[in-house]
Amino acid sequence: MTRSVIVVAGVLEREGRLLIGQRQKRDRHGLKWEFPGGKVEPGETPKDALRRELREELGIEAEIGPEIARYEQCVAGRPALVLLFHRVESYKGEPQPRTFQQILWERPEALPGYDFLDGDLDFIRRLARGQVRLAGRRGG
Predict the structure, then answer these.
(1) 136 found inside a domain
(2) Range of the domain at 79
């Protein structure tokens, strides 16, 4: 049985916009858009992995918040991906596109117009429909 691969992604919000990154042209899935993050390495917790990835990819020191979405993606002939999306509560430093072609701050409802990695599409749809609560607590 093949083990699943855990991938963690950070959701950074600023003034109602979310940070997305475009992969380098030469990378696997070149020029596709994604949320910053990556694979959880052996011995790492998802939050530790996301902190490390945000440091490597954006040059920021992040405070990782709660998990806001989780699902599994299966592709024939490959290990299943378990995708975890965490809200980033706060961070120090200004995000820089260290490993990305470019980074953008974009409104959630505009995200379906970007060419995202397949793994992010379910999350994008949920965001666009308002099914993911990103900030603050609401009564109820």
Answers:
(1) no
(2) 13-104+114-128
